[in-house]
Amino acid sequence: MLTQIAKLVLLLLICGTLGAAETPTSAAKDSHEIAESPIVEARNARSLSYGPFVNWGTGVGDRSHFKFLAVGLEVVKPITPVLHAGILSGQFALGVNVMPLWQAYTPAAHVQTFTFHGATYSERVGGGTYTGFSLTPVIFRWNFLTHSRHVQPWFQGAGGLIYTTHKFPPDILVPHGIPGATSVFNFSPQGGIGMHYFTSQKRSIDLGLNAVHISSASLGDRNPGVNASIQVQLGYTFWK
After folding, report:
1. What is the pTM for the complete model shown?
2. Which domains does the chain have, with CATH numbers?
3. Which tens digits make up the pLDDT trace of 153-163?
């Protein structure tokens, strides 16, 4: 399913950016286009956008059995005019999002075998559902210049903070069943692609695909982290 979603996002991005190969001679050469195109209007006005979203994701590699769900609100504001660079022409924007509900679903507590310096031993490892919230205070987004009336593609890089009510990710259990030496605070550097699909002059449906790394930066004694996860974001945006 994730592969199909990724192909869809990439296809929409390609379609949306094909028109950027030719640079318009004037932002206002066609007042009729400006009046009717929600993308041109939002771009020229540097419109503030905001709206709710749902995130769903899965870990990859040795964390492929981890699943993620989050619900949040995102705000983005373009801060530059269109900068021309051929097919990479576009507009730089800054954003922030907050996820008051963030959850990770991991396998239930179980016995796991470890190997250390050639010695093999077994320990009981925690697991289950982890709940908390996440804040992404800095989103650097590049909105591609497009001549489409509906599709506005973008790519971004961001950095966030996750707090969970129990130490995450699951670790070896110490006496009394308490998780071991990971941390309730983790950082989430990330990058991705996506697009707005304008359904009307001031509304859009949004689809994004992000690669997210989760790490405590050694705030705990151990930092197993989640090296990589793929997060699909579906949102609805209002434009000022």
Report:
1. 0.83
2. 2-105+132-168+181-239 (2.40.160.20)
3. 999 999 999 99
